[in-house]
Structure formats: structure tokens, C-alpha cells
Write a structure and sequence with these properties.
The protein has about 120 residues and is mainly beta. It contains no helices and 11 strands.
Length: about 120
């Protein structure tokens, strides 16, 4: 049982990238799903989450630029990131939580599965 991520790239400021996270060995439909990011020398921060009922949360820096979505038929969750800024480079990781799947603001320690975290870089 694991989360397998894909996507991540080197993009120019203002560019876009789409991250995908696929579950293997379990079904995402009953889980709350989040994307976190961590830049070098900084603490991990929550980017965006979607609960079991497709309710979403976005951090202030992500609001209006990033879009989280889930495709239960494909057993995947996505993060579309548009208008990338120089402050966005980080390792982005998806996470899945089965307990209390309707909540979105839950400690990272409560998540059951984590993806390996592709690097997203923004460079001019």
C-alpha cells in the first residue's frame, strides 16, 4: 500500500505544473487527501486538501492559483498549480488519511500514507 506521485518540473514564473498522486493497494475514495510542501530550511506547510465529500481547503498562498481535485474512478488526486511564483519551489507531497475523512485541517502526523514528493522548481 502506497502513494505514487508523478509530475513536478522546472517551470518559469507564471508557468503551470500538474502533480498527480495515485494510490496503490487501497482505495482513496474514503480518505481525506492533502498536498503539503517543504522548501529547504523551512517547515512543512499544508497547501491544499480535499475531504471525503469533496470539500476543499487552500492555504492563502494557494488560493486562486492552485486547484486540488480527486478522481475516485482512477484512484488519484491531483494538484494543478498555475501562475507559479519564485516562492513556490519545494518538495510537494501528497498524503492520505482515513480517520475523520471529513476534516481538512489535521496534523500531518495523523496521515496514514505519504507520497515520495516530487520537486517543483521555478526559475527564470
Amino acid at each position: 500500500e502506497q502513494l505514487v506521485q508523478s509530475g513536478g518540473d522546472l517551470v518559469r514564473p507564471g508557468g503551470s505544473v500538474r502533480l498527480a498522486c495515485a494510490a496503490s493497494g487501497f482505495t482513496l475514495e474514503s480518505y481525506a487527501l492533502c498536498w503539503f510542501r517543504q522548501a529547504p530550511g523551512k517547515e512543512r506547510e499544508r497547501v491544499s486538501c480535499v475531504n471525503r465529500g469533496d470539500g476543499t481547503y487552500y492555504a492563502n498562498f494557494a488560493e486562486g492559483r492552485f486547484t486540488i481535485s480527486r478522481d475516485n474512478a482512477k484512484n488519484k488526486v491531483f494538484l494543478q498549480m498555475d501562475n507559479l511564483r519564485p516562492a513556490d519551489p519545494a518538495v510537494y507531497s501528497c498524503a492520505a488519511r482515513q480517520r475523520d475523512p471529513w476534516a481538512v485541517l489535521v496534523s500531518p502526523a495523523e496521515y496514514d500514507y505519504w507520497g515520495q514528493g516530487p520537486q517543483v522548481a521555478v526559475s527564470s
